[in-house]
User: What shape does this take?
Amino acid sequence: MKKFILLSILTFGCFTITVSQEYGWTDISDNNLGNHFFTDVHAINEEVWLTSLTDDIYYSDNGGASFTTQNIGASTFTIFMKNTEEGYAGDSWGKVHRTTDGGNTWTPLNGTLLNTIYSISFPAVGNGYCCGNNGWVGTVDTTGIISTELLSPGNTPLYSISFPSTQDEGWVCGAFAFFMHFTNNVWEFVTIGGGGRSSVYFVSNTTEGWIVGDGGLIDHTSDGITWYPQNNPDTMDYHLGDVFSTDGQHAWAVGPGSRILHTTDGGEKWILTDAGLATENLNAVFFTSPTNGYAVGNNGKILKYTQISGIGELYQGISFDIYPNPVTDKIEIQCSEFKTESGIIEILSLNGKKILEKEIKTGIENIELDLNNLNSGMYLCKITIDNRSSTKKIIKE
Assistant: This one.
């Protein structure tokens, strides 16, 4: 792994070296399977799903290094993966599709929203919600859309919905400054200035949220009730299509011409990044951590935020093999990088809960782990070396 040496000091015959990693945007569009119109993105660890206006979802299990197709049979505008196996996608016909095997198969569920579904959100517990064209919202469970409600008799398109914690509180936004808050089983209007809003996002299990839209408007709340405008340094006042935050401090908003806004202090200061990698509109952004994320848009555009070298080389993951897989008792993990570098192996649940951890010292290439105590099911094996990590699925029989 390449590093940048920032400081080297020779003192009494010993070197003290301080190193840091540089992160930035890389164009990985050539890794996909065509010139598609991408509408949304969701990622968990190294697995990435992209929705599009074709009849396929595009999937990567290696952080975007390559993609395969998952047939869903309809144009899709939104996707929400609850974990690496269970996910939901909304299509242009108002149907919700569900997968329980990571997207290998997608099944259309019962019910319809009567028109295009633009956004789906599931809280940590309880039912999910979706919204779409002509002012409709729907309540979603594992069987499909179980109820619908017309919020805008004027047929205002509703573009984004966010339920961060429970099914009892959420927000939805749309065209013409449409913005509503759901609490106490009632939807109520929220008054904010400016034009239409295209995306509202709340950090999971918090009331820390953002809403963005026409004219580059950015509004922020820390309590879910009072909203304050934040300064957008982009003097072009482009429409912002999507906003996402990992932790309430780091947040990103995307718009036309690969223009990306980024804050590291909760929005006190937004920095404009003209990625210079495209002229296409960016329609969606998603980050798995402050140093790993994706932005997608028109004409097959896929950008990845990751560790880069000084000449913009794509940061590489960790290559390793697991066998046997499926496993009944013990697995052997082979990672050639352990010959020269130490690291950590973790076994995680599909929700990311750590079940087992083993520290590996330099010089050991083949590692055996006993999984006899695990229940049958699907797990994740994550290897971390320095600031890099890669993840693969394990099936325990």
In short: The chain has a mean pLDDT of 86. The chain has two domains: 24-308, 321-396.
